[in-house]
């Protein structure tokens, strides 16, 4: 198909903070350890981790000691604050070089993730030279929708709709990007367009067609209640939970797979089950395991991973959960659900899937004295009860914190860490999915077998799709 011309009219800015703090996790097989605490060496994924500790004091470099080259840029006064940083090197550059059609990072990551969905209405936005703009078009068609979905890492395009400008959040009304269906050589056909917004549902997600009704302190889950729930098996034993987000991709926690991501043959994902173990359930082997490049086993940030299945799932009794959109928040006090096969008492095992309804807590409450005292970062969301009683526990790691918005279920968090299980002032911490969206879509895009092309010149952007179906 012909390329499409896109004009960028104004600018915006976005940056991602990086916070490094100490660690504790909730990982355990069903037949594994009898403690909620875990060792930090992670030599075996079934070994529990140690409780939260104060970070060690910095050790000064003694004279004559070699300095790793990776430290040299910061020692020479080079700062990457406010700039785009390549994850595989120390290179950083102005954000205006992002999504400009020129690969500045060795792996081209600065030209990935140039499309996103934002706000409550899934407003389509594109990035050109580090600037996010909202897409407007009177001639939106399925080819453009297909291309946008591909660049988000999805294997298909469902549908789109138009919204009036006044119906979306004010943050998305200022910076507008026009899409014209003219050939790039026909510059005279650049027409003023009306203010409407394509809406791109990433998948037929967030529904529970097989269920209609109402972990620690929770209830045994009914079939179909959490159709996006996955069980991650390592050497034929349940190790962690996960969430189905597409027919090929599962979201889980990085600490579930760290150190064991290279041998995918030892792993399998099971879906559509409520009891462990059980024969005859839908099981898929893994093609690839990807965890965040900045994740460290002794840190709490970037605790996010993706599992790519060797074959797509068939949604017969299972459905994906919707990802949240950029800028979408789950307010303090909102009641959400946790689920998994983790222990139902501190130190026990879980055989049936359990679930519990828990409120989202504010970072202020969870980082206060007597709770986690400043250990909360923008990568985390806290949920549970400060008085204890309901919580995620061993074996729940990587599983969903699911919140319902307008009858659509969205993945708010992935179970990450906490002190013990369901103790007073020890609510569970979850990786905040809305903060990890850039990484999630980037990995899905770069590991997709379907090609899309998006590049920009001085003032125009060309958007082209290569129609190679999976």
Structure characterization notes:
- There is one protein chain.
- It is built from five helices and 22 strands.
- The radius of gyration is 23 Å and the shape is globular.
- It has 470 residues and is mainly beta.
- Residues 1-26, 28-77, 181-197, 199-203, 212-216 and 450-470 have low confidence and may be disordered.
- Among the domains are: 4-15 and 94-203 and 449-465, SRCR-like domain (Mac-2 Binding Protein), CATH 3.10.250.10; 335-435, Beta Barrel (Thrombin, subunit H).
- The protein has a seven-stranded mixed beta sheet, with helices on one face.
- The longest helix is centred in the last third of the chain and has 14 residues, at 433-446.
What is the string of SSEs from the N terminus onward?
Answer: EHEEEEEHEEEEEHEEEEEHEEEEHEE
Biggest sheet character: 7 strands, mixed
CATH fold description of the domain at 4-15 and 94-203 and 449-465: Mac-2 Binding Protein
The order of strands across the largest sheet is 4-5-6-7-1-22-21
Strand residue content: 25-35%
Would you identify the regions where 5 or more consecutive residues have pLDDT less than 50? 1-26, 28-77, 181-197, 199-203, 212-216, 450-470
**Per CATH, which architecture of the domain at 4-15 and 94-203 and 449-465?**
Roll
Tell how many strands the DSSP assignment holds.
Answer: 22
Binned, the helix content reads under 10%
Average pLDDT score: 70
The CATH top-level class label of the domain at 4-15 and 94-203 and 449-465: Alpha Beta
Compute the separation of the termini in Å.
18 Å
User: Given the helix and strand composition, which structural class is it?
Assistant: mainly beta
Oligomer: single chain
Give the overall shape. Answer: globular
User: CATH superfamily of the domain at 4-15 and 94-203 and 449-465, called what?
Assistant: SRCR-like domain
């Amino acid at each position: 198909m012909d390329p499409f011309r896109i004009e960028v009219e104004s600018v915006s800015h976005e940056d991602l903070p990086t916070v490094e703090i100490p660690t504790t996790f909730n990982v355990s097989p069903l037949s594994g350890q009898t403690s909620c605490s875990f060792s930090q060496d992670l030599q075996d994924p079934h070994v529990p981790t140690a409780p939260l500790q104060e970070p060690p004091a910095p050790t000064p470099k003694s004279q004559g000691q070699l300095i790793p080259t990776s430290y040299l840029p910061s020692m020479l006064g080079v700062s990457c604050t406010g700039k785009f940083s390549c994850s595989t090197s120390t290179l950083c550059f102005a954000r205006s070089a992002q999504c400009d059609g020129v690969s500045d990072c060795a792996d081209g990551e600065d030209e990935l993730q140039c499309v996103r969905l934002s706000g409550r209405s899934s407003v389509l936005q594109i990035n050109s030279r580090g600037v996010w703009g909202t897409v407007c078009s009177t001639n939106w068609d399925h080819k453009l929708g297909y291309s946008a979905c591909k660049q988000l890492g999805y294997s298909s395009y469902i549908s789109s709709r138009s919204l009036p400008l006044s119906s979306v959040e004010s943050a998305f009304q200022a910076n507008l990007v026009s899409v014209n269906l003219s050939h790039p050589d026909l510059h005279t056909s650049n027409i003023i367009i009306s203010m409407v917004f394509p809406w791109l549902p990433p998948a037929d997600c967030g529904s529970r067609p097989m269920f209609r009704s109402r972990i620690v302190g929770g209830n045994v889950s009914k079939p179909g209640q959490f159709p996006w729930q996955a069980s991650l098996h390592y050497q034929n034993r349940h190790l962690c939970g996960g969430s189905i987000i597409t027919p090929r991709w599962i979201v889980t926690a990085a600490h579930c797979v760290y150190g064991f991501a290279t041998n995918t043959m030892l792993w399998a994902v099971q879906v559509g089950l409520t009891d462990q173990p059980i024969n005859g359930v839908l099981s898929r082997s893994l093609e690839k395991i990807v965890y965040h490049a900045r994740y460290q086993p002794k840190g709490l940030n970037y605790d996010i991973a993706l599992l790519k299945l060797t074959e797509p799932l068939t949604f017969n009794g299972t459905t994906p959960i919707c990802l949240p959109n950029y800028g979408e928040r789950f307010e303090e006090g909102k009641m959400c659900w946790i689920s998994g096969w983790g222990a139902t008492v501190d130190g026990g095992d879980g055989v049936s899937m359990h679930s519990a309804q828990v409120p989202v807590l504010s970072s202020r409450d969870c980082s206060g004295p007597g709770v986690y005292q400043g250990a909360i970062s923008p990568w985390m969301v806290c949920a549970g009860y400060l008085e204890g009683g309901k919580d995620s526990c061993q074996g729940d790691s990587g599983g969903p914190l699911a919140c319902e918005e307008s009858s659509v279920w969205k993945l708010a968090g992935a179970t990450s860490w906490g002190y013990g299980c369901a103790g007073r002032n020890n609510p569970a911490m979850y990786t905040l999915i809305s903060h990890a969206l850039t990484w999630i879509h980037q990995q899905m895009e770069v590991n997709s077998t379907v090609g899309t092309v998006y590049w920009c010149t001085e003032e125009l952007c060309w958007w082209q799709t290569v129609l190679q179906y999976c």
